[in-house]
Amino acid sequence: MSIFLQPVGVTKNYVDTQAMEVEGNFTIGELLESLNLPAGINAIAIIDGKRMPGDEPLKDGAVVKIVSLVLGG
Amino acid sequence: MTGNTGHFLRVDLTVDSISLFEPPPNYYTRFVGGSGLAAKLFWENGDFKADALSPESLLIFALGPFAGLRLSGASRFSAAARSPLTGHWADSSCGGNFAPELRFAGFDGILISGVARVPSILVVTDHSARIESSPELWELGVEAATASLKQRFGRSYKTLVIGPAGENLVKFACIMNDGHDAFGRAGLGAVMGSKRLKAIVLKSSNKDLLVADQAKCRELVTELNNRVKESVTLNVMKENGTAANLEGGVHLGDVPIRNFTSNFWEDMSDALTGSTLSEKYLIRGANCAFCSVACKRIVQIDEGPFAIPKGPGPEYETIAAFGSLLGSMDLAAVCKAGRVCNDLGMDTISCGATIAWVIEASEKGHIGADQSDGLKVKWGDIQTVIDELLPSIAQKRGKLGALLAEGSVAAARRIGRNSNEYTVHSKGLEAPMHDPRGGGHGLALTYSVSHRGACHVSSPMLFMEMGACYYPEIGFDYELEPLSSENKPESAVVAMTLGALENSACMCQFADREITIPEWVQLFNVVAGLDWEIDHMMKAGRRIFYLQRLINYRYGLRAKDDHLSPRLLTPAVDGAPEGIEIDFEKMKTKFYKLMDLDQISGIPSKKTLQDHNLELEADTILGE
Q: Mean pLDDT, to the nearest integer, of B516-533?
């Protein structure tokens, strides 16, 4: 199945906006791990405006925003 | 004594006297420096009956033991006093170049009381200081006053300056350091203004810091500096400043929008984020002394209504406070508003938040034309904010300027008609620009138990919820889910203890994240000559937390005051945190239990105070 990756903020430095083919039952956690983000750029996935848990399976056609938890003060 | 010098300047402006004050050496080991040492000195020397803006009030500047060390993040220092904004204890932290220079001049800090007969400045040089009358500086903006001082004394002199807001006793006036860095929060600029002290200027010819173990210190500092240089997250901030991931923050629901009424605004996130600032207006980054991160921004806007010459640019808090919080996505306007606020000497957080309050209160019909001098400010109208509102507030001009100069909480109290529904604060201090509903529920807890009021730098909780740090040696090895209360009280115990230490060691909370707990202990030992184990260090942090609670107890604060405005505890209506409740009372109750805080009085038991070597303080509060 195919999903669409959309990096937000600092994750743009490490992830391209792209369509991506993944196997069925691929989870959010597996997706994040596969991106190999550097240590410190802890990221979560947001689909339809909602934060998705790591064990959530991806659905065909999902637009997945990749958001780092890095925040400044 | 190493690291510290053992010497404070004691200045009484009423009688024009300056003397040397040597705190007992055990104050340094028990209360570290900065915020903690200032609290102890305030406890011993402060007049608890004195109004914050009276001659009897005590204003304290205090360094940590690491000021002067050529270590990234080590050049901050604390200012402390009774806050005119909140009425209770406040300390504020500031970076820049002043702290190491004061240490090199031979001092660990300055205690200031009294009121000068005419506007004056304090001039500090190697092991000496003098008071000079300088009425010609009064009424000058921070920029002009700083330039005038540098012209008179030399460019290498470091300066602390208040603006018109401090002179006019605006309750959230700040103290500006070399025109760029700020003791921003809780109105300490008004305390300085009430003493008719326009500025402190400082120069030392010495550049050496005496440490306990030169070789081990050099080795450790080199290791930590290298780690900071290689840090992925700190390099993100070096490139695009502290607002580097504002876009990400918006998607998390962390960035407050229109007075915390919304948690998502996608177009704004692109317009205000750090990379946009870099692309459009950045001239270069700037750093505090000896720091390789350089997260500060130097910007210039060449044309348009918000053109500004090359100079200090906004950091994340200012971008959000004059951007999203006021419903604006005009980055040039934000830069200009920040620059104007700095020049007038006002805290951009409380100022932006107070303006957000008045916009919403007006919109909802709580403020009539007679109370606003006919001025109508709307969401996104930063031009009016810059041209009309900021100068009016700083000068307390007209009914509206005078009203807003009191801060949002006092203003709402004066207006009445339930306008306090739109205030967003804890203990009278307006909330910073991280909405705990999206940023992390632990932040709601640490905002509420922070001594100065809603504060994101009283602890590293924000970073702990981001997964940016783990401290297994002191019981924090959780992988926290930000939008949950699970393990948050336990984490807050670590966070508040570590935060008290960080603010007393006067270290930067960004660079600190690269330091492990054993390295913290080692730093104290090789610099200040202590013989600490981890337990000693953490006990010092807890001791400082408890002492500052006792100070607030003497000012009448109780457990019920550890609370947040209802807005921050009402589920978000949009964005990633939409509909999610914060289990605040459960977190607070558990935190109190873990910290042995009484659920009514808010202070620890006598035994806990004694266990933390606060016997005398316990006797003062609880009787012998």
A: 97
